[in-house]
Design goal:
With about 260 residues, the chain is an alpha/beta fold. The chain has one domain: Rossmann fold (3-Layer(aba) Sandwich), CATH 3.40.50.150. About 40% of the residues lie in helices and about 25% in strands. Strands 1, 2, 3, 4, 5, 8, 9 and 10 form an eight-stranded mixed beta sheet that branches. Strands 6-7 form a two-stranded antiparallel sheet. β1, α3 and β2 form a beta-alpha-beta unit. α5 runs parallel beside α7, α6 packs across α8 and α8 runs antiparallel to α9.
Length: about 260
């Protein structure tokens, strides 16, 4: 499945999972607007469609991504309300405090676990130095619960977590450690940090998202631990059969991180 289709498939689950309490805290912090929001790794713009209606207006959203196809789709489907949108094709790991000089809030969704500790630390430093708030949502938390359980769940989950922490082109990805890394990076610089769980809670009957997530979860686990491949096909068939009759429930742990400048209300 290509990236735009996967992002579209997960948009409703993401919206249901993100913490409305942290969004409320951001709204209070920003006051009556106008505000400028920079969305790092914006994908198809789902974060803006979820968050913009919860914030004061007018709003200017600057969407950052390396993928021109995703940027075009995000621009074609902007948030509702008094919002203007501009797109920037850029590597988000190079964002510095000077780039955030006019920014009220930096957002990101399902992104931090794909970064390294140094990259997250640099982004946190840029936000703190620029004096802007940050709301980074849906970082994987290393917790998957499937009902009914099977013994293989634990092995697959452990292999998947290891895959999330893999080394790619010399970069060690944070995976489930991303939430803690972001918290530490902001806290050490004096920001006020709040965390909230933001789990996907997925019911499976007729759910293309559950099927696609299962396939991706199993494939990543097998890529990390090839010994699991001999069990993978039968496991997937059992899970899909259970899903087809509406008897499968999946909860995938994520965490949302809010960082406000020191002394912010």
């Amino acid at each position: 499945m290509c990236a735009p289709d996967w992002l579209a498939l997960r948009e409703d689950a993401d919206a249901a999972a993100r913490s409305p309490e942290l969004a409320d805290r951001v709204r209070i912090h920003l006051g009556n607007g106008p505000v400028t929001v920079r969305d790092l790794g914006c994908g198809t713009g789902a974060m803006g469609r979820w968050l913009a209606p919860r914030l004061p207006g007018p709003q200017r959203w600057v969407l950052h991504d390396r993928d021109p196809v995703l940027l075009a789709r995000a621009a074609a489907h902007p948030p509702a309300g008094p919002v203007t949108v501009q797109t920037t094709r850029a590597d988000l790991t190079t964002v510095a405090a000077a780039d955030l000089a006019d920014t009220s809030l930096v957002t990101a969704s399902a992104l931090l676990d794909l970064l390294t500790a140094d990259e997250v630390d640099a982004l946190a430093a840029a936000c703190v130095d620029a004096g802007c708030a940050a709301l980074w949502t849906l970082s994987v938390a290393g917790r998957v619960e499937i009902d009914p359980p099977e013994p293989l769940d634990v092995e697959l989950a452990a292999a998947f977590d290891a895959h999330q922490r893999r080394r790619v082109d010399g970069r060690r990805l944070l995976g489930p450690d991303a939430g803690a890394a972001a918290t530490d990076a902001f806290t050490v610089r004096g920001a006020a940090v709040e965390l909230r769980p933001s789990p996907w809670r997925l019911a499976a009957r007729g759910s293309a998202l559950v099927e696609e997530w299962l396939r991706g979860w199993i494939d990543a686990a097998c890529a990390q631990s090839p010994a699991l491949e001999r069990h993978a096909d039968a496991y997937l068939r059992r899970r899909l059969d259970t899903a087809a009759v509406g008897a499968l429930r999946v909860e995938v742990g994520h965490v949302d991180v809010l960082a406000l400048p020191a002394g912010a209300p």
